[in-house]
Fold:
Amino acid sequence: MLTYVGRRVLAVVPVLFGVTLAVFSMLFLVPGDPVKIMLAEFVTTITDFRQPKRTPYDIAVALPPSADPAPYAKAGATWWPAEFPPETVSLDQVRGVLRDGPIEP
Structure:
């Protein structure tokens, strides 16, 4: 009985490796950027729900201060506030982003 349980536990390792490899391969082979695809689906859903009441500031995406907002604007985002990691943000960094103003895509 102990031998059977040991073999079953050892069989988990190659199965877990195989599943990990299969999922990674599928994500790598899918055309396009998964994040952009998910954002486009989100924008479409929100737009469909709020069609009559849509304003120019419906889709907000939090980005790091150094990120390029152009791909997100192309996918439909209309607002991209800077997202700072709370562990490392300084007051000067926040003031600098506020001083520089909004980023134009």
